[in-house]
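Comment thread on ticket #2218

A.B. wrote:
> Attaching the input chain for the structure job we discussed in standup.
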Amino acid sequence: MNLSSCIHAAVSLFIFLGSAQAELTGSLKIAFIRISFEKGDFPGFTGDGKFLMSPSDICGNYIIDPPPHDRNYFKSHIEAVDNYFRTISYDSFGIDIDKSTIFPLLNDSSYELSKPMNFYNELGKDSEHEKRITTLLKDAIEKAHEVDNINFDNFDLIAVIHPGLGQDFKLPFLDPTPEDIPSTFIDSQMVVKYFDKPLNIGNSTVSKGLILPESQNHPLMDPSIFSTLINPCDIQYSITGTWALMIGFAAGLPPLWNIETGESGIGIFGLMDQGSNNGRGMIPSIPNPWTRINAGWEKPTVYTTPQKVSLDNLKKNSIAKIFLNDSEYYLIENRNNWFRKGVDIDSSRLSVWEKTEKYPNYIDVLFDSTGITRNEFGVVTKINNYNMSMPASGILIWHIDENKILNSINSYKINANILDKGIDLEEADGAQDIGYISNLITDPSSGYWGDMWFNSNNQFFRSNTINKLEFSSYTYPNTKTNDGYISSIRLDNFSNPDTISSFELSYLDNRKIFDNKNKSLLFQWDIDNDKILEFIGSGDSLWWSKDLEKIKPFKKNRSEMVQISIVKNSDPYSLAIIEKYKKSYFVSLYTFDFHRENFIKAWESEIVSNDEIALIGAEDSSIYFEKNLSYFKMDIYGKYDMPNSFEAIEFFGPDSSKINLSNINLNSYDFLFKENNYKSFSLADLDLDNSVDIVAVDTSGNIYAFDKNFILKSGFPVSSFAIGTVLISDITGDIYPEIIFEQIDRSVIALDYKGVEVFSRSLSLNSHLRSIGVHAERKAIIFSNHIELFKEWDGPFGFNEWSYQYGSPNFSRILKIDTLIIPNNPKLIDKSLTYAYPNPSYGENIIIRLQVGSYEKIDIDIYDIAGYKEISLYENSLLYPSNTSSVIEIPWNVQNVESGIYFARVNVNGKIKTEQKIIKMSVIR
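C.D. wrote:
> Ran it. Output below, let me know if you need it in another format.
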């Protein structure tokens, strides 16, 4: 039986504001103040206002936190919390046992307050609860100072321990004691809010404090429960978990549940949520890996290339980090709950049941079989494996969004929005139900064994139709970013549970990772005139390579501020380079030496300038650049002057006619270098009418497309956040070029010639859109550290495309259009390229994508598996030239469609015939 089946931790903590601690190391000195009340009988409060001192024989030898609850008892729990933090922090953080003190010093004593015990959480006084709980801190420390003259300045934290239970649990029955005091952290803002300033106690100043309970053992503290439950001894809980949660919270570990509603954020899988009460409060869960890293206790290992990743249970720094983009990443860990090889608490209970047909209590097995021991005061003070309370053994995958964390950490709302968490567990069963209200008998809302990733987890297949356990862009859950961009990351081949577990990292087939330390990709060019495109890149040096296997550096970079272009009309091939270093710009020309098979420096010159210098191209042996909106060229002799022939800022159509961009409200020269309505331009024949089109990005990042007469084309502008220049090339194979651009949100988008999004991808860490190229005989988009592969490439290269910032790597700014190869008689429907996606659908609209030739009408009839027609869809207008093959996408809205199997009968009607294809689809709710 796991925690969620009987008790939900719903610690009622008041919000406290202020910057969270980024690193949590050292030892806390805590003053524990035991307070009590005048003995009395209040129906809404557990106990009589005094600490429980009389021995109890309830639950026999299986009692948790037995009385007497004296100084030795509380000292034992301080040791338990200290051992917990020192174990899970690898001795980086804990409680200073020697300098922490329990007051009063006598074993059985306490400070009696004058107010009645139910005053501080009185029923019906909800609006005053925050003020009254803050008053409890004030009353306690004032009384303690009055009696023992305590110097509170000697401590980092004050903790008030009150008699009775903490009002911290959602019980499986009506709570009979609603006036129990909630465990609370009282921060400095709460103190100032109600008392105008920090509390001055003698010569000491107290600005914050904790309120902690004597016990969380309901059967022990409230014997009436025995008449309510069949098996009350199995809902006993220790205060160790509650104390660890509260002390961690006060010390700077951010809460990961919604502190206003109590909704769970990470459930039982971390200390700073319901995991604090794992193992009946004696075995609190270790914090999730983000918390451990943020506290400074561990460091992750970053993985980028395809490989097998192995992770150890509770071994320091055994955390895998895989980036989705610059701010989102996965943290992956192995949690193993065995107390001996292959045996956990639940399997041990099952073994007993198989032998005796009696299912033993969780607590019985915990004490009898796991090897945990209690000290002389009956308190469990140390656990060897704090993952022993996990519901299973396996891999946990955490989706971290640093932007969301940054925006919410100071208000303690990292996981306040259940639909938009900063730290989200990727639940293997696909339900993603942690924190949601559940009416199931076995409540998964706090997490259960099916949420962990391991080889034999059959819960994954309830949400997925593939035949193996996999985490990728097309599974549920999936590896998309929080904005829905495909990351191409794939994790599969998860091992069986063990103390060392593994999985394999790979990428979808169209992504190739370039993982060369301190190197990045720029563009391709036929460097050695062998009719094959080679790569040129940057990083700590400029380099070139034929196949990315062997890198050939030729110039060590002085800084990251390097600009490079191919030199036009040069033989042998040459590179123009401008590099910024301190207050100088170094302008150089490197030529390719066929004998050495590398570039060698031809000349270099230094320009000292406070103004920015931008490379705008190179021709023969001269390099052209812009400085302060004026244009210069530098030659082999280091002389530079105003150019009189090189039209660096003009754009040219396929017939070499100049494109006068001033017709769209721009000067003819300065759009590249100062703010205007548009910040970049690209050229292509988008709709294949043998006429140049102009694609522009405005200063807000929106995409515009104009024809040669500067008339806005249909479907544009497209609202976006594009940065840089758009690239244009046919990468999908429909012969029409796509418009490709990077966005400020770390994504890359491709639009078709009508402005409709074709695909989107996330950009991995430090990767940026660079150019269009060819790799592995496929058309490719080249990024800083990876390549995305698309249609098979059959050449030629560089026609009807804008492959680099200024047209091509030689900054040509010229659009080249070759004779278009158009199929003479395209098929009415290409069945191999006609399909539906996403399939299966989990509530998203299904898109029926058709590759068609000349058609007059498209009819789609959709039937359920019983043969009843669900809906008919139509496409009536002839949109494409008669001699082309084109893509049509028709959406089916499945919002009100029930789960099941469906069939689409697709009829494409031409002038003289009709062709048909049947597509099988499924909808899963």
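A.B. wrote:
> Thanks. Noting for the ticket: The CA atoms of residues 652 and 814 lie 5 Å apart.
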